[in-house]
């Protein structure tokens, strides 16, 4: 799908129901389904395409908090869950559709009050990512589709207790050879963490962490010399935090 066909689709159908596009909408904590208790629900499954926009933080409208908070303990697993349509958790429907190939990442940000934080004040550190495995030609979004929309990661055990935002992101690169052709899909979850840790990793700011010309943002994944993929943003925090 070329960028142009994406936009004509968006014009023809209601924005909330564009096929193939998707939203991160559910959260699992330590194997327990918290559904959409603590997600800042995004208004539609349309992507963000301007990586310098404040929509990059927690998607459109995502600077505003919601009431729900998910409780977790440092060192536990979490899974963020993506689907094309709200509440469509059917595992026979692709989580993100068709040719929307690209990386999946998870960031966290330590905030004072997760129900109020706008996501621009505190830095974000990366806790998980899956880009592209060139050996088996598998993208992070393929992994979502194989796992019923879920991407599982570990909450670092050494980070301090308190409130956090968790930011899940998938990037579709099928049209990314053109400037601003990458389609970015992100959601933020509101977390309260129990922990005996006291080490806060350094991080990056959104917007700002990505540039339109980053090799992981403007990239021709169908080009004959495409062999490996450079995931945008910082590296995952050091293993010693886990
Ligand atoms: C976190 O600690 C508080 C106080 O000890 C406790 O009430 C709460 O259940 C704990 N939460 C989790 C997710 O373990
Ligand atoms: C491709 O490799 C990754 C590890 O990088 C693995 O998790 C995944 O299951 C593999 N996918 C297929 C289809 O073999
Ligand atoms: Cu698209």
Automatic annotation (TrEMBL):
It is an enzyme of class 1 (oxidoreductase). It is found in: Secreted. Its EC number is 1.14.99.56. It catalyses: [(1->4)-beta-D-glucosyl]n+m + reduced acceptor + O2 = 4-dehydro-beta-D-glucosyl-[(1->4)-beta-D-glucosyl]n-1 + [(1->4)-beta-D-glucosyl]m + acceptor + H2O. It comes from the Eukaryota. Its cofactor is Cu(2+). Residues 21-225 form the Auxiliary Activity family 9 catalytic domain. Belongs to the polysaccharide monooxygenase AA9 family. This is lytic cellulose monooxygenase (C4-dehydrogenating). It comes from Phialemonium thermophilum. The lineage of its organism: Eukaryota, Fungi, Dikarya, Ascomycota, Pezizomycotina.
């Amino acid at each position: 799908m070329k960028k142009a066909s994406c936009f004509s689709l968006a014009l023809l159908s209601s924005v909330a129901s564009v096929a193939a596009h998707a939203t991160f909408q559910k959260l699992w904590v330590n194997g327990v389904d918290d559904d959409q208790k603590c997600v800042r629900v995004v208004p539609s499954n349309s992507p963000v395409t301007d990586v310098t926009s404040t929509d990059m933080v927690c998607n459109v409208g995502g600077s505003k908090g919601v009431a729900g908070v998910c409780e977790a303990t440092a060192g536990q697993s979490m899974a963020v869950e993506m689907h094309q349509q709200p509440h469509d958790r059917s595992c026979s429907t692709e989580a993100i559709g068709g040719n929307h190939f690209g990386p999946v990442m998870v960031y966290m940000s330590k905030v004072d009050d997760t129900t109020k934080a706008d996501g621009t004040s505190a830095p974000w550190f990366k806790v998980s990512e899956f880009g592209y495995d060139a050996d088996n030609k598998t993208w992070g979004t393929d992994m979502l589709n194989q796992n019923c929309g879920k991407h599982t990661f570990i909450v670092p055990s050494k980070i301090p207790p308190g409130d956090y935002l968790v930011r899940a992101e998938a990037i579709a690169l099928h049209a990314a050879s053109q400037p601003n052709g990458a389609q970015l899909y992100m959601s933020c979850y509101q977390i309260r963490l129990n922990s005996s840790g006291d080490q806060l990793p350094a991080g990056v700011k959104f917007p700002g962490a990505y540039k339109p010309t980053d090799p992981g943002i403007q990239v021709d994944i169908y080009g004959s010399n495409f062999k490996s993929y450079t995931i945008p943003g910082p590296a995952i925090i050091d293993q010693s935090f886990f």
